[in-house]
Every structure is written in structure tokens, then in C-alpha cells.
């Protein structure tokens, strides 16, 4: 079986490094309010986070819901989404490339 050429391999590598963005909607449960969830997306996964909208009740007794715009490479964003999944934070909606316009 022929091996892929160096040109194909470098094209794949460049595609992984191209910056992109996605918009997600999440609700952070009350039991994670003391955890720096959004801060870790930036510090541990090197994504840029823009909080486009937030909804929290007055006394923070329930879930806190956010619409976040995540910007970074595909692998950075994938790692950040895996982190949210490991915390059992459900992604209620994730934009498609067509919605993002990138």
C-alpha cells in the first residue's frame, strides 16, 4: 500500500492549525459554580472565549446558562469540548460552520 506523500501530510497539519470558531450553548450546574470552568477553557486549552450571553438567577441557586463563542484551532476547540463533556456539562447547541461564517 502506498504511503501518503509529504505534501498531503503537511496539508493535513496546516488544516489542523488554521484558526476557527464555534458558538455553543451550555448550562453549568449549581454543583460546578465554584469551579473556574470558563477560565480553564482559556488557560488549559488556549481557546479565546467570548461570553455572548449569560442567564443566571439572582441568588445563583440554579444552573447558569451561557452562549459562548470559542476561537482557536480545531484541535484546541475539540479538547475544550471534551473537557466540558468530562465535567458532564451538556452542550445544548453547537453552531455549524455555515452558521459561523468561517
Describe this structure in words.
The N and C termini lie far apart (36 Å). This protein has 102 residues and is α+β, with helices and mostly antiparallel strands. It has a single domain, classed as Alpha-Beta Plaits (2-Layer Sandwich), CATH 3.30.70.260. A hairpin with an 8-residue loop joins β2 and β3 (64-73). It has helices at residues 6-17, 37-45, 74-86, 97-100; strands at 19-28, 48-55, 64-73, 91-94. The model is unreliable at 1-5 (pLDDT under 50). A 4-stranded antiparallel β-sheet has the order 2-3-1-4, with helices on one face. It is globular.
Notable features of this structure?
alpha+beta, 31% strand
List the helices and strands and how they pair.
Blueprint: H1 6-17, E1 19-28, H2 37-45, E2 48-55, E3 64-73, H3 74-86, E4 91-94, H4 97-100
Antiparallel strand pairs: 1-3, 1-4, 2-3
Structural class: alpha+beta
Helix coverage percent: 25-40%
Major pleated sheet: 4 strands, antiparallel
Number of domains: 1
Count the strands? 4
Across the major sheet, the strand order is 2-3-1-4
**Elements, N to C (H/E):** HEHEEHEH
Distance between the termini: 36 Å
What oligomerization state is this entry in? single chain
* Unreliable stretches: 1-5
At CATH level 2, the architecture is 2-Layer Sandwich
Strand-residue proportion? 25-35%
Q: Please state the average pLDDT score.
A: 83
Number of helical stretches of at least 4 residues: 4
Amino acid at each position: 500500500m502506498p504511503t501518503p506523500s509529504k505534501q498531503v501530510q503537511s496539508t493535513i497539519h496546516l488544516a489542523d492549525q488554521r484558526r476557527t470558531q464555534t458558538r455553543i450553548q451550555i448550562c453549568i450546574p449549581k454543583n460546578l459554580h465554584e469551579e473556574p470552568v470558563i477560565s480553564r477553557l482559556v488557560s488549559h486549552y488556549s481557546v479565546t472565549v467570548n461570553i455572548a450571553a449569560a442567564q443566571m438567577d439572582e441568588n445563583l441557586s440554579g444552573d447558569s446558562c451561557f452562549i459562548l463563542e470559542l476561537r482557536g484551532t480545531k484541535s484546541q476547540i475539540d479538547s475544550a469540548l471534551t473537557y466540558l463533556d468530562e465535567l458532564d456539562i451538556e452542550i445544548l447547541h453547537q453552531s455549524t460552520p455555515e452558521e459561523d461564517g468561517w
